[in-house]
Each structure stands twice: as C-alpha cells, then as structure tokens.
Amino acid sequence: MGMYSNHKLTIKSWAEEDRPREKMLLKGKKALSDAELLAIILGSGNRETSALGLAQQILHSVEGDLHALTRKTIADLTKFSGVGDAKAIAIVAALELGSRRQLLDIKKKPQVRSSQDAFDAISPLIRDLPHEEFWILLMDRANQIIGRERISIGGVSGTLVDAKIIFRKALEYQACGIILCHNHPSGNLKPSPADIDLTRKLRKAGDLVDVLVLDHLIITEGGYCSFADEGAL
Asked: Sheet containing 177-183: which strands, arranged edge to edge?
C-alpha cells in the first residue's frame, strides 16, 4: 500500500482559477480581494487568462471603483472576452443584491438624527445612477422614516420636480416632515442656483400645509451635501 504524503498544498500550488474559492473555504470571505470575489462570480476566464485575470481586467476598467462597476450594463460587461450574457447577468445580479442589502434597515423605520443617517437611508438608491432622480424621505414626529418615494426621473444634468406631487405624497403618508434628495451624476456636490431656488420654494410650500422640509441632500458617489448642515435652508 502506498504512503500518503502529509505535505499540504499551498494556495500558490492550486490552479489559479480555483484559488479564490479555496481561499474562501480556508480563510473566509473577508480574506478575499474584490478581484477574487468577482472571479468566483465569473467562474472561468477566457483562452488567454483565468477567471482571476479576467476579474482584474474588469476592475481595472473602472479603476477598482465598485460604484462605477455597478453602473455597467450587461452590454458593457459582455464586451470583455470571456464574458457572455450569463456571466454579465450574474455580476449585475450580485451587485444589485449588495445594493438592496444596504436598504434593509429602512424597513425598520430608522430614526434620522443627522444628515448622515438620511444619506445612509437613500444613497444606495441613487448614488450610482447615470441620470438624475429626485426622491423624498417621509418622516413621522419622532423623525423615523415612514416612507421613501421617487418624485421624478431626469437626464444627466437635471430633473423636473412638481411640488404638488411631493406634498400629495406627504399628506398620503401623514408625514410631519420630509427630506428632499437628488443625485448629481457629475459628482459635483455644489448646489446649483436651481437647486437653491427649488429648496426655498418647497420649504415655503411645506409651511402652508404643516409639513416641514427638514433638509435637502445632494448625493454623489463620493458623498453628499446637506442644505441643513450648510445653513442653506
């Protein structure tokens, strides 16, 4: 009977495309890099490179920015050699699950104590979008979030906002206050003159129907600007 060797194979001795999976089994998910996690989703590479090499190519195309990767469409991803519809769909689905996970806490009616709390509650919905959207967070008397509603969808540089729609939603929820939220796909956090004018008009309209406009957040991939924090309400 032959003797079995007690020598354990190191990660470097495994096939390259198997390393991320085995590494997760041995060391856990936190030990994996973004490229290794993406390689597991891909499953395989192409004739020239492994799944890990392909994952590195994809991440390099967005400079390692996972928010930018979230904006990639299935058509964008299938431009990479070795990525067909099935792999592209798997990547998009995984990223969407990650975004939805960040929204779970809002179902528990979190209390908003600061602009950061409001940002955390709305940013997963709009920070990665290639176009502007305008949303509102609806609050009860305890500043707990009781709803979130999309008011409008626009283009790259703007979106139209109807005050009647905003306050009809607020009255439907019997909200005591609202937080205005919209994204700037350009990454510019500075409020435009139109943003400032709209905020003032909506605050005055809210006073008439006893619904406080508590803040207005401008959101980008890199962070947010709070009108309340800036003393601009």
From this structure: 145-153, 133-139, 177-183, 212-220, 223-226
H/E element, 216: strand 212-220
Q: What is the largest CA-CA distance in the chain?
A: 90
In a 13 Å sphere around the CA of 68, the CA atoms on its Cβ side amount to 11
Question: Tens of pLDDT along 86-126?
Answer: 999 999 999 888 877 766 655 566 789 999 999 999 998 89
For residue 205, with 0-12 CB atoms within 10 Å meaning exposed, 13-18 middle and 19 or more buried, which class applies?
middle
Among candidates 138, 127, 147, which has minimal Cα distance to 214?
138
Bridge partners, 139 (sequence order):
145, 177
For residues 111 and 96, the answer to whether their CB atoms sit within 8 Å is no
Contact between 88 and 67 under an 8 Å Cβ cutoff? The reply is no
Whole-Å CA distances, 146 to 138, 153, 167, 173: 6, 22, 15, 8
Q: What's the pTM value of the predicted model, to 2 decimals?
A: 0.64
**Please, are residues 36 and 15 in contact by the beta-carbon 8 Å criterion?**
no
Taking the CA of residue 208 as centre, how many other CA atoms within 13 Å lie in the half-sphere pointing to its CB? 10
Q: What stretches of 174-211 adopt beta strand conformation (E)?
A: 177-183
Residue found under tokens 């979130």: 148
Q: Token pair for residue 170?
A: 């607020």
Q: Are 225 and 192 in contact (CB under 8 A)?
A: no
Strand partners, 213: 178
Give pLDDT tens digits for 39-52.
Answer: 999 999 998 988 89
Structure tokens at 8: 């354990």
Give the DSSP letter of residue 129: -
